[in-house]
Structure formats: C-alpha cells, structure tokens
Inverse folding.
C-alpha cells in the first residue's frame, strides 16, 4: 500500500491538556489524537503540528499532518476522529496533501491572539478563555508598544526564561489590539515564528505599561536589551489562542 | 445579637454542579455557598434562592438571602465568600435587606435565556454554554410560536414529566428570540414563575418547529392540550441561564 500524507485542521480547548506535545504520563493534544488515529487506522502514526502549544493554550485553527498507508479516505478520518475524540478537540477538516507537505517546516507565518478581559468584576463564563485585569488599561499606549514590535527583531527579551529556541530573531508582520468589545481586548500578533512564551511575555509586559506600572520608553528598551530578566510578568495561558497558520 | 437578613446577588456556571438545591452526597450551589458561609460566620445558615436551578443550568443573576446573627458586614461577606468560593461561583453583591425580604416569595418575575448555537460546525469554546443545532432553523416561525405563549396559560404540556409543581398556571410577560448574533440565538422568556423544565421543554419544542419537524399549528395545539406527552424533546441544560429576578 502506498504512503499518503493527510493534513488535519484542528480546533482545541487547551484547558484540560498538558499542551500539544506527547509526553509520558500526561494528557496532551497530540497524544490524544494519535491514540484515536491508532484505533481507526490500526497503525501508529506520528502527528506533526505547525508548532507546539503550551499547557492551557487553545487553538482555533491548528494545522497538523501525518503519513499513513491506510486507505481510509480523509472525510471518513474526520468523521471517525470527531466521534472518538473528546468534545474539546475538533477536527475541522481533513484532506490529502502532497507527500512533501510538512506542517511545521512549510508554515510561512502564524497568528496568535491573546484575550484580556478588562472590567472590574470577574466573568465566570469567560474565565477559561481570557486573562482578567480589573483596573482600566491605557489601550492607546499598549498599541504604541506593539507597533514597536513590527519588523525583524532579536526577541531574546521575551523568550521563555531558560528557553533555548536557537536563533532568537523573528519577523513580526502585524501586532495590534482589537476592541474593547464586550470588555474584551484581543491582542493579535502575526510573525514568521514565535519563541516559546513570546506572546505571553509580550502581553504581560504591555499590560504593565497599560496599568501605568511601566513607562512606554521602558518597553522599547526591554526589546533592545535582549535580556529576559527585564520583561514583565508572563500572561497566563488560558487567554492565548493559536488563530491561524499561513502556508 | 440581633438577627439580620442579607441578600446575595450570585452568578454561577452550573456545569460542575448538581443544581442549586443542597442534596446529600452531591455538589450543589446552595451546599457549596452554605459551607463557605459556615467557615466565615461560624454559624449554620440556610440560603433561600428565588428558585432552584437544575443540574448544569447557569445563573447570570440569581438572588438569594439568608438570616444571620453575625455582625460581619455585607461587603466583608462578599469579599470573604469570593476568596473562599471556587471560581465558577461569584458573589456580585451583598447587602442588608429588611427581615421580611424572602428571595422566593417576593420575586415578581424571573427572566430566563436559552442559548442555541445554530451553525453546521460545533464550537468547542461555546459547548458548555449553548445547545448546538447543526441544521438551519426557521427563526421567524419559532418567534411566532413564542408569541403564543405570552399571557396567562396552563403550562402542563411543558412541565417536567412526572413533575408536581402544584398549580400549572403561569403568566408570561415576554417571549422573544434575539439574534442570530455570531451564530447564537437567545430565547428570552420572562414569567411570574416557571414550572420545572418549562423553558427547556418549550425550547426543545420550538426547535422541532424551527427544523420543520413540527407544524406551527401543532405548537398551539400542544399548549392547549395540557398533555406533557405531546411536547417535543427537552433541550439540554447547558444552554439555560437565569438572567434576572425582578422584585
């Protein structure tokens, strides 16, 4: 039987998962889908994603692919997976792609969105999908900070502490804030790649600026410093969504 | 020490609870709050609510009251409860009310909202807060059904099967559908009281009409019949919200 390459478009709620990547003894997105694929295909396959998402982080549209010798057509794989998977993981599409397609290497850019709920009272119905900031934020200044990110930069200041992602240079195509809409601010960043925790470290830092705890000039200085210890707090995972992967 | 009467305005996510009412061996909203009040007040109090909500049903604004001899002021009770309660129950306000105030007996009307997500694909981020209906709904006809509910009626056809709520007569002040907004329909019903499962039975039945599985004339006939066995399916609990209680 011939090898085929199948692309999956996935949506998942990260709250109950220890991130994308399969790990022994932890419930992960990759591990859960691979297990269901094994039940259907009776063949061990290895899922590749556009990139890992951390524990508690969500995806609206994650792209993944796997190679298989099974003849089960993609529409049946989509249907079968959706009947087997828990309700917090959804296969939105499945299709054959050329054997050369690789969900990670071929991604040209990715878009992440970070949701901040900015109102005094907590909202228990949005607590799993946003970061609640009680005090009013100066959104205009936060927008100014973000525009300093656009272009190519060494993002060492915003990488995970102890992170070794290799080359810390990334190109940001877009960095905006949409809203507030129903008290929700959506920080949208598109880049050719992201260092680990980069979005959450950027958001945590601009929130400090928005709260008046940090000067805007300090933000530009942090970016230039390439020193992880200068940035603000890391925003919590439940506000972060992988929105799109572009090929 | 003198007795005081304290009113609590509550919001809760019903997904993890076996409804409002305290029950041995089950985690309920009433039981959880009473337990935290005992920790704070060192006195057993009995919470009264405007009405019970069933397992899995949510509240945006539930009204409750309890009598106590404690001198802890309401603002401190609010703050203390919010620090002790799990994140899916929120005390939005606490205040002294006259001793005669009774959250259930004094309620003049209540407003419930039922959320239907009407799109082909499921939305994993709204699955806990809506009923997903894949096929397009004829919302105009559903609206016509609802307007037949306005006024005073014997709602026996829409009570819970085996329900013994006593008098089945209720007055509906408003019955509307808002939306669709972002694929969400919100069925809003205000009445002087509700029989058990009444909103969910009404919504399940108008959804059958909206799907073309039932004629609109049948809906009026069901209401007139006062026969529980004629109505459609009961809509699932996670789409239902107690929105307001009016005094």
């Amino acid at each position: 039987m011939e090898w085929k390459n199948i692309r999956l478009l996935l949506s998942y709620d990260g709250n109950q998962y220890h991130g994308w990547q399969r790990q022994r003894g932890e419930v992960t997105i990759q591990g859960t889908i691979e297990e269901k694929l094994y039940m259907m295909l009776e063949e061990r396959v290895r899922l590749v994603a556009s990139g890992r998402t951390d524990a508690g982080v969500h995806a609206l549209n994650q792209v993944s692919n796997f190679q298989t010798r099974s003849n089960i057509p993609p529409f049946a794989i989509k249907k079968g997976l959706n009947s087997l998977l828990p309700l917090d993981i959804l296969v939105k599409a499945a299709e054959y792609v050329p054997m050369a397609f690789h969900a990670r290497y071929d991604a040209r850019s990715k878009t992440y969105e970070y949701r901040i709920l900015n109102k005094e009272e907590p909202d228990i119905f949005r607590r799993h999908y946003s970061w609640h900031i009680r005090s009013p934020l100066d959104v205009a200044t936060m927008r100014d900070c973000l525009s300093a990110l656009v272009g190519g930069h060494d993002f060492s200041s915003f990488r995970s502490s102890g992170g070794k992602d290799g080359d810390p240079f990334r190109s940001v195509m877009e960095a905006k804030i949409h809203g507030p809409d129903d008290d929700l601010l959506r920080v949208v960043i598109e880049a050719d790649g992201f260092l680990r925790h980069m979005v959450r470290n950027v958001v945590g830092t601009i929130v400090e600026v928005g709260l008046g705890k940090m000067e805007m000039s300090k933000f530009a200085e942090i970016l230039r410093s390439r020193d992880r210890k200068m940035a603000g707090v890391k925003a919590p995972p439940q506000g972060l969504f992988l929105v799109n992967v572009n090929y």
Remarks:
- The CA atoms of residues 20 and 53 of chain A lie 5 Å apart.
